[in-house]
Amino acid sequence: MKKIKILLVLIVAVLGFNSCEKDELVFTAKAPGEFAFTNNFLPQYVLTSATSANIGERFTWESQSFEVPVAVNYELQGSVTGDFTDLSIIGSTSGNDQAVTVGKLLSMAADAGLDNDPNTENPNTGDVYFRLRAYSGANAIETLSSVQTLTLFLPEIVDTGGGFAIASWGVVGSGYNDWGGAGPDGQFYTTAASGVIVSYVNLVTGDIKFRENNEWGGDVGDANLDGILDTDPDNNIAVTAGDYKITIDTNDMSYTIEPFSWGVVGSGYNNWSGDGKPLDAPFYTTSVPGVIVSYVNLLDGQIKFRENNTWGGDLGDANLDGILDADPDNNINVTAGDYKITINTNDNSYSIVPFSWGIVGNGYNNWGSGGLDAKLYYDYTTDTFKVGVKLIDGDIKIRPLNTWSGDLGDANLDGILDSDADNNIAVTAGHYLITMDLKDNSYSIVAAPVWGVVGSGYNNWGADGPDAALTEIQPGVMFGDDITLIDGDIKFRADNTWSGDLGDANADGILDADPDNNIAVTAGNYVVTIDFNDPDGPRYHLTKR
Fold first, then answer.
1. Same domain, yes or no: 218 and 146
2. Cβ distance 340 to 353 under 8 Å?
3. Taking Cα atoms as reference points, which of 228, 193, 226 lies closest to residue 210?
4. How far apart are CA 527 and CA 545, in angstroms?
5. Which residues of 130-160 are buried (b: 16+ CB within 10 A; e: fewer)?
6. Do residues 394 and 314 share a domain?
7. What pLDDT, in 10s, does the model give residues 338-384?
8. Is the dihedral of CA 204, 208, 211, 216 positive or negative?
9. Range of the domain at 184
10. Residue 400 confidence (pLDDT)
11. Which of 93, 121, 153 is the last residue before a domain boundary?
12. Residue 110 dihedral angles phi and psi, to the nearest 5°
């Protein structure tokens, strides 16, 4: 019986093959259901010509099937109208991703009528649109993805005219640049008042005086401490550490040195700086006179801006027009995240844009699937961004806002970050200080001690993961924000090891290695600082936001 069945099967098969000689075998493709992009998109894409070559966004998607064994190709389409009557083909691929450069986004922004010129009526922000076409075969069986909107932002070019220019005078001294040995003098700028110049500087405890063109001869100080500059002997001016506004009237050589700092305050940062809360998030001067910037982690809430951590003259934006004012009800609503806040004190304009850079890779967080990127913090003393981080053997790169948009690596291994293909940076396990300079895209990875928070209040004394790393943002100053603790105890240690760990047995704000020195904490979001430069010993600040 088995032999008969087998014979029948063979007969049927032969008949089937013979029929194929007369009729073609035809597959009918079925279009798949609607599909969408799988990458995360930014709330806003900040575009500058200086970064034209960088990747603005990398679109990704899942493979589509037309239920037949044929190849599927993909075509990324762009539109500035949204209805795709003006569609342009960004690129075609058989893969699952397609990068779009900042330059292409700038071109689309121009087509949409956007520009960065504050003297035109054209807006500097607007939307463009993307969709994906999946198709197969010569007859182009196809399906289209859902439309994705990208909001573009072109920072307006700041015109620094109006009498503001670099003056010939500068600040020199042990309180600023080690009497010129550690760099150029702190610059003064002209003002609208004839003969009145101003400098915004960060000083350390020491002495200063003033001189022209970074040269000795004719330098002036204040021997009599009468507010009038002179060339007398022993005329150094004693100063203490802090941010200052120095004004000189060259018409009569009178001068003032007054504390000066702008900061971010509010429920969106430090709970309006109530008792025990962090000081305002500081602003820093830039190379543009009157333009200051803050890199800050915000919470859901409201913010405004004020001088010297005190109320009086604080500014917000009651009209939501991008111009700061002192009107009632001028709090500015913000959502949680990392931001760059810029204020132009010449006209009180401001901007708040998402901003952060972080370390990603299988050498740190499994390319993002194992947690957020290691955030780089701003160091105003070197105008660079830094992060202290524990790495494992693998590869890393640096990317903005925890997303695959404008990620950077080093394809040439020349110490300059680029967006080339195959630009992963190989690393070996250890603790490192990684520094990035956005002025020239240079970077460094240097082995260095990394202090962190350990305890039952964070990671079960190290059993549940690495310590919360702090970054040396200035020499001897360790910092971390957005650190979430639970009820328990903590202390501080270097390189995730029990060697020289520090706590606070006396509860006096000074770290020590005494027995029973655990620091009790309650659940919340914290800003953490350790200052190893304090003459009384390592002073720490652990403040809940």
1. no
2. yes
3. 228
4. 7
5. bbbbbbbeeeebbbbbebbebebbbebebeb
6. no
7. 999 999 887 889 999 999 999 999 999 999 999 999 999 998 778 89
8. negative
9. 166-259
10. 94
11. 153
12. -65, -40
